[in-house]
Amino acid sequence: MIATKSNWLSLLAPHRNNKDYGASAWHKFAVLGLLLCQLLLSTPASIAAEPKTLNLGNTGEPQTLDPHRYNLRLEETLLNDLFLGLTTFNAKGEIVPGAAKSWIQSADGLTWTFNLREDLRWSDGAPLTADDFVYSFRRLLNPKTAASLAYFLYMIENAVQVNQGSMPQESLGISAVNPRQLQIKLAAPYPYFLERLLYPIAFPVPKHVIERVGDNWIKPEHWVSNGAYKLQAWQPQAYVEMTANPHFYTSVAIERVRYHPLASEQSGYNRYRSGELDAIPSVPTSELQTLKNSPNKSGGKALRLSPLLSSMYLVFNVAEQPFADLRVRKALSIAVDQEILTSKVMRSGDKPSYTFAPMLISNYQPATPNHVRLPLRQRQAMAKELLNEAGFNEANPLTITLRHVSGLEGKKINLAIAGMWRGIGVKTTLHQAELKAHFTDLRQGKFSVAWAGWIGENNAEHYLSLLQSNIGSVNYGRYQSKEFDALMTKAQALADATQRNELLSAAAAVAAQDYPVVPLYNLSVKRLVTPQIKGWEDNLRDMHQVRYLSWEDAR
Q1: Domain containing 186: what range?
Q2: Burial, 13: exposed, middle or buried (Cβ in 10 Å; 0-12, 13-18, 19+)?
Q3: SS3 at position 408
Q4: E strands, 387-462, in order
Q5: 3-state percent breakdown (helix, strand, coil) of the chain, nearest 5
Q6: pTM exceeds cut of 0.85
Q7: Tens of pLDDT along 46-85?
Q8: Are residues 210 and 316 in the same domain?
Q9: I want to staple 329 with a disulfide (CB 3.0 to 4.6 A). Which of 83, 410, 514, 515 is the partner?
């Protein structure tokens, strides 16, 4: 209980008529009480009523908090609280105005004009203008920044050339009409542009700080951002702490939040049950049924189950043997049974996937590969024949290393896949690594076959573009197909979304015949969120900015 002046007087009152106390004793006691009251009344409110911290679990330790150099979903979660792009999303995951209050698109779909809010400021109080966005977009595409996701904005005029160093940054199709108006010119129509601007790669960064301290600007002592929260502390492997940005254009209900990196699903679950965390991103599959049946804090209303726009898959390094051989890739692909993985092995609500772009995408219907309709035994016979043609048999078995992210669930899934491959005579060794190291190796091409995943947009191009030969290091397997690239390029020149999707579907069909990846499953969100948190809305993006949240009771 927080003591107040009235609380203390009520505690003192019973002793006033107690005959065991003389006048002198009462006088001293009363003086002491009054001194305590005075001390409390002079105590700053921030000490007397410390705001409650929201403690959230995150899937791992961030590599960076530079929005132009981020690569991991767990970093995106943090950056969405720290920064605000031209567009943003509401609690339901819908696209809404962000730093831009409105925008106009030209009739040809090539020019976008954004009108910025009048009350935009950085967290240090400095005004934020259209020039800050010009600086930031140029910085992202500057080859010296080495942004692995720079291609996200390749639709902007001259973006490819700037990022490849063949044109100066000033050639980029972005300009400040005036301090409150920004104009962006595209090289080709891109109907998903507003959605693409949701990503951290399109967030503004503080030029006035970066030019002073360089890459140290992301340290808490130099931190400046424009989101609802600002970085207060970053204790590696412990937490990232944020506090409300006093210069954000609207107030927030939760003043302080800490994101804690979780070593595993089980660790996060244990910390939630102990009351250390208010929400965790996932729960162990073994606990799901118990949680569904539990009416208390550890289950019931706390359990959030919802589908997620995502694609989990295996990727082959086609730049290396034996995976440069289509027969090997096809054999391994058709021997995997996605239905068994999701219903028998994982049993966590995730849905089997047979297409690289998820079926949840609106207005897009990809073709399902023919082998999906065949019985497993028939597929296994076909796979053995393909391997034999490629020179692998009982006397000379195919031996491979399958890489995956550390953790019980990842190991279980990949052990099952290794078992399926054993059925066609393949010897598989599993290699696990922490999340950051795993994807660093993938970007550098240091693997043969590996588990990977992509989460994000409600358009097929977002996923299929990962297979374009000019996309950079996120084309982990270095897949190249002139036919696929040509169809993607043709689709990317169309402004009409329906026509564009038809070509994207055709491109997907070409890639499916080359087997550069093995689609496995689409994720389902399995969160625990304490019922004391209000404003949490399940959505297909599984994005939840803290500024939309509040506590159930006044604190």
Answers
A1: 84-214
A2: exposed
A3: helix
A4: 399-405, 427-433, 449-455
A5: 40, 20, 40
A6: no
A7: 444 578 999 999 999 999 999 999 999 999 999 999 999 9
A8: no
A9: 515
